[in-house]
Structures are given as C-alpha cells and as structure tokens.
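User: Some background: our group keeps a shared notebook of sequences we're curious about, and every so often someone picks one and asks for a predicted structure to add to the entry. Today it's my turn. The entry only has the sequence so far, pasted here. Could you supply the structure so I can complete it?
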Amino acid sequence: MESTAETIVEAKNLTKVFRVGFWGRRVTAVDGLSLDVRRGEVFGFLGPNGAGKTTTIKMLMGLIYPTSGTASIFGYPIGAPQARAKLGFLPESPYFYDYLTGREFLRFYGHLFNLRGTTLEQRVDELLETVGMSHARDLQLRKFSKGMLQRVGIAQALINDPELVVLDEPMSGLDPIGRKEVRDLILRLKESGKTVMFSSHILHDAEMLCDRVAMIMKGRLVACGHVSELLAGSTTHEVEMVIDRLLPEALERIRPLAGKVVLQGERVMVVLASQQDVDQALDVIRSAKAKLVALTPHKASLEDLFIREANVIQSAKEAPVS
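Assistant: Of course. Here's the predicted structure to add to the notebook entry:
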C-alpha cells in the first residue's frame, strides 16, 4: 500500500542538457528524472560517480536551471525563498574560509538567516554539541580533519533549524570512523523529526540508513522505492561456510557443491550456490570430524541490485541495432 506521508520534494521529468566543447556538443546529465521525498524519511539518492546525482541536487537547490521538467520543495517552485527558508544544504565539495574558527564559521551562516545575539550564540553552541565539535569551537577550520569539516558542514546546514536537510556525498573520502560519525548524525536528525535526503555511491551506508532510495545511472532513474521492496526481487540463496581442519579428501567431496572455495591457512571458506546443499555439506564435515566455524546465508543487498542494473544497461548498450 502506498504511503500517505506528505511529499516535500517532487521532481517530474527533470532534464539537464549541457553544451560542452568548442562545437557545443550536447551532453545529457539528467534525463527525464521523476522522484519524490516524503516528510520524516531518510532518502538515499544513489549512483556511481558521474551518474547525475550532483547535477540533480543542484537543480533542486535552485543553483542551476533544468533544461526541461519541473520540481518543487514544500510545494514551492525550486529556488523560491519560502522553500529555502526551511532547507539546509551541504554541497559535495564545499569551500569554507579556513581561517575562521568553528564558532565564527557558524556565526557567519547564522547571520545569513538573520540570527543575532543570544539566540545565535545558543544555536551555535547547540549545533557544535550536536555534531560533536564543542572541543573544536575555537580551532581554525584549516586545522580540521576531513571528518571534522563534514561535521561542521552539517552543522551549518542546520543553523536555520530546517525541516529538510540535503547532503551531497556526505561520506565521500571519509575513513571508517568519519563515516560512522556522519551516519550517526543522520540517524539523530531523523530522530529529531528532520527529513534527510543524501546522495552517495557508498551503497552499504545507504542500506543501513535509508527508508527509501532512488538509484540513478547515466542520468536515468533505474530503481526507486523502499529498500526492502527493491531487494525482494534480488534474493540470493548462497550460503558461506567457514570450516576448520577439513581434510583434502573431504574438501574434494564438498567442492562439487561449491560456487567458490578459498583456502585460508588451516581454514577453508566455501560458498554454496544453494541452501539445499547445506545438509549434504554438513554431513561431509561431520563424517570428516572437521569443525564448522561459521555458517552465513548471503542476503541480497543494494550492491547486488546496483550490479544487476548496471549489467542490464551495459547489455542494452552492446546489443546490435536491428
């Protein structure tokens, strides 16, 4: 059953064509894209580098104009001041004047929203605490790590207490600790009632965070919906087994059942192509008096869906024209 949640971002047949090179060759960056973002959800906008994610977000933010199609935020046309007042945005590669301290940086953005005095100071302190940057409030941005810059960048996107937060590739280039910090921040934003839309090519992070996702390739939407719904048709039945002290003759009995066998010292990792082969493999392990260390069914992931859709597009590209 379709959700009745309020739609706050809507794009219909959004298209952007650029003219490049001396001869003005037409390059279609976004091609007839339609999607919606609903209040209170975390919405992932996914695709490989160069798929058109940033171009789409720039159109939604009113930074560039679409060649054709329409879009709205909170029911207002893109770029309308009424929409921008309720919007927070962090671009993919922002430039921050790096001789400002964290506190000065947030004050500057607060002034853009006409925040002043005690109200602004309280807001700055709250946001620094929210993003875990209170310890660096008086440190110049040029001394921040990439993860610290991302966190203070998210803080500036929240300075006006927006209803919608849009983050373009917020986890790109971060180490595992930085990615976890940004993931935790996004979850806290959702818990506080914000709607979050973020783009990413890191599919694992999106699968952990998102209520719904849209997947774009070569400027075209190839999948959109709840993560569970999208993965329902991509179920895999592979099972991974890790076995200790498996004798070579026993391994040869299991090998015909396996799609992949990897030797890891005294351990063997076996990937069975079907769950139906598990009992037969277990019988071999028991009879050989080996030790089963782990048995892990492989569930479908957004990465599986991504690869499947990429293969479909590549096959269509290579198909001969009749």
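Suggested note for the entry: The chain has a mean pLDDT of 87. The two ends are 41 Å apart (CA to CA).
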